[in-house]
Write a structure and sequence with these properties.
- By secondary structure, the protein is mainly α.
- Helix content is about 80%, strand content about 0%.
- The chain contains nine helices and no strands.
- Helix 3 packs antiparallel against helix 4 and helix 7 runs antiparallel to helix 8.
- The radius of gyration is 17 Å and the shape is globular.
- The termini are far apart.
- The mean pLDDT is about 85.
Amino acid sequence: FVLKTLHAGADEWPGIVRMLSRRLAASNQGGDLTTQTLTANYLAVTLRRSGRLDDALVAIAGATSGAAAGGDIYVLQTVLFNCGHVMLELSKRSGRSDLVGVAVDALETVSRITEQHGLGTDSAQNELLIADYKIRDGKLAEAEVMVAKAGRIVAANANVYDRACLAQIEARLALASGPG
């Protein structure tokens, strides 16, 4: 189910959104909180990918409150990352710059959670996303901190995609920093 959602093509998203919406409605009638939270999270990711960002924001808000209430640190980490990602995408597409700070705060919370609890060594995408927005915002020293954290994570895993993204962000940071 999750893999189908992650690897679905754009033509499959409407059907997946319908299926997840039905599952969420059913689990809200009597399912456990973790199932509700994860279903809302997957729904938000699928809605974001299909360009339905306002709907994605509603779904991720439900997932975020469920994750906070449930107290499962792994679920909270996942949901907060997707929350930040949805808000960043919404800010890019709609020009709502007010969402960028909130989104980066959510992503930085994920970074703190992963560091405090020893989680997240399988991917550096959270730290790379933060670094990307810090570079865009001209906060190069803060971007360097995130790039260093991402570098430690990438060094500990074999994630080729993360390595490529790290190289790209390092290059952008070097260009933004200027000669020297």
